[in-house]
Amino acid sequence: MRLAFSKPVLDHPSLVLNRSWVAIHVTTVRRALCLVYSDAALVVETEHLQTFDFDGWCDWNRSTTGRWVQTPGFRVAAPEVIQLQCYNKVPAYDAPFTRRNLFERDAFTCQYCGKHVGGERMSIDHVTPRSKGGKTNWQNCVLACVRCNSAKGDRTLREAGLRLLNEPRPPRWTPYLNIKHSEQLESWAKFTASHRAAKG
Ligand SMILES: [Zn+2]
Predict the structure, then answer these.
(1) What is the pLDDT of residue 3?
(2) Whole-number pLDDT of residue 193
(3) CA of 114 to the centre of ligand 1 (A)
(4) What residues of the chain score a pLDDT lower than 70?
(5) Cα–ligand 1 centroid distance for 95 (angstroms)
(6) Measured in angstroms, how far is the CA atom of residue 146 from the centroid of ligand 1?
(7) Residue 196 Cα, ligand 1 centroid: separation in angstroms?
(8) How far is the CA of 29 from the centre of ligand 1 (A)?
(9) Do the strands 81-84 and 41-44 form a parallel or antiparallel pair, or are they unpaired?
(10) From ligand 1's centre to the CA of 157, what distance in Å?
(11) Domain locations along the chain
């Protein structure tokens, strides 16, 4: 079947869950409907978390977002969330080393005192100071509040008598995590609560 979809709705985002209900990706409504139509995925209705195959979804005929895909013969609600039927992994890739990604890895929490920090109070601390050969990479950089960072100064952990809350390592991220907050639908919060919690 080929559906003559109206374009804007088809380009809206649709969250993809794996078989274990873990958010792994964001696709378009177009691709989501194709996956559901070919039985590779089910639509997840986001209020009561019922799942539907393509026919069931058409019969159910409700939309919480008011986004409909209109075809010549009928209309179908744009799926906000779909669940893959076979895929159960969580794809991951190495996140690029950037300031923002570092803050995300450390959950906006000072890795010395555990305080939640944001805005101008955030700084990046070199665990082994640069003056002592410390590199600027995932293994040697952590988020620190300005206070802890200046208290530690140009000293190593041992010299400063400090301990890290978590061992710094490169994060493995799913493609889903690369999507900006502003591009996410409200209904996705249910499926991504653990990710969101880390961001405060
Ligand atoms: Zn601190």
Answers:
(1) 55
(2) 58
(3) 6
(4) 1-7, 175-182, 193-200
(5) 24
(6) 7
(7) 22
(8) 43
(9) antiparallel
(10) 14
(11) 7-91+175-197, 94-171
pLDDT digits (tens, 9 = 90+) for 40-56: 999 999 999 999 999 99
Measured in angstroms, how far is the CA atom of residue 179 from the centroid of ligand 1? 28
| pLDDT for the residue numbered 130 | 96
Structure tokens, 114: 């555990």
What pLDDT, on the 0 to 100 scale, is given for residue 106? 93
At 179 the pLDDT is 67
Distance 200 CA to ligand 1 centre (A): 16
Three-state secondary structure readout of the chain: CCCCCCHHHHCCEEEEECCCCCEEEEEEHHHHHHHHHCCCEEEECCCCCCEECHHHHHHHCCCCCCCEEECCCCEEECCCEEEECCCCCCCCEECCCCHHHHHHHCCCECCCCCCECCHHHEEEEECCCHHHCCCCCCCCEEEEEHHHHHHHCCCCHHHHCCCCCCCCCCCEECHHHHCCHHHCCHHHHHHHHHHHHCCC
State the architecture of 94-171 in CATH terms.
Orthogonal Bundle (1.10)
Does pTM surpass 0.70?
Answer: no
CA of 120 to the centre of ligand 1 (A): 13
CB distance 44 to 17 below 8 Å: yes
Measuring CA to CA, which residue among 34, 39, 38 is closest to residue 79?
34
Query: What pLDDT score does 186 carry?
Result: 85
